[in-house]
Specification:
The protein has a three-stranded antiparallel β-sheet with strand order 2-3-4, with no helix packed on it. The relative contact order is 0.10. The protein has five helices and eleven strands. It is of the alpha+beta class and about 190 residues long. Among the domains are: about 50 residues, no CATH class; about 80 residues, no CATH class. Strand 9 and strand 10 form a beta hairpin. Helices cover about 30% and strands about 20% of the residues. Bound molecules: adenosine-5'-triphosphate (ATP). Adenosine-5'-triphosphate binds next to helix 2. This is Kinesin motor domain-containing protein. One of its GO terms (biological process) is microtubule-based movement. It comes from Musa acuminata subsp. malaccensis. Keywords: ATP-binding, Coiled coil, Microtubule, Motor protein, Nucleotide-binding.
Length: about 190
Amino acid sequence: MSSDSGVQVLVRVRPPSKGEEEGDPIVEKISSNSISILDHTFTFDSVADTTSTQDDIFRLVGLPLVENCLAGFNSSIFAYGQTGSGKTYTMWGPPSALSEDSSSSEWGLTPRVFERLFSRINEEQAKHSDKQLNYQCHCSFLEIYNEQITDLLDPTQKNLQIREDVKAGIYVDCLTEEYVYTMKDVIRLVIKVH
Ligand SMILES: Nc1ncnc2c1ncn2[C@@H]1O[C@H](COP(=O)(O)OP(=O)(O)OP(=O)(O)O)[C@@H](O)[C@H]1O
């Protein structure tokens, strides 16, 4: 995301799950970019509380990232948190939402980012039709577990190696890359790796 430091940190507080509902919550959003936990205040670039929707998170994180990519910058989204804190929900949404044919209000960041990316690519190609712009999108999925990298699109490929190339930078050697042209292609791959 574009910012002075190049990295922005957003905290999302998920609603209490069943069994957590009793008692007062100890985490409280106190401004658009800070939370308090017991008597301590912590400041981030942004804070999304339990009322935030998947669309709110997309507007805060996903939209600027797509524009950043189209402007030629590498961009990453990284979800970090303890088990059950909502990483999968935020990045993908519930599995039922992904299997639906059309877009869903429950979609997480990844399908929303791809949907926007493809529509922006179409827009750019139409706007500059004289220039014959050619965009290529491909996806890879990998798991790092016990310091071993497995290719989720071809799980027979275990223990892949991380290498560095002068031009391409850091990459995972022999990782499967599948070209994607539409949201359907992306969802097909997601269902395959799940
Ligand atoms: N913002 C939210 N609104 C509603 N439900 C949520 C939200 N965030 C998470 N949940 C629900 O909380 C549960 C745990 O979330 P999730 O599976 O995304 O956690 P996780 O961080 O990916 O956990 P793990 O590291 O164990 O895979 C799920 O049932 C999910 O649907």
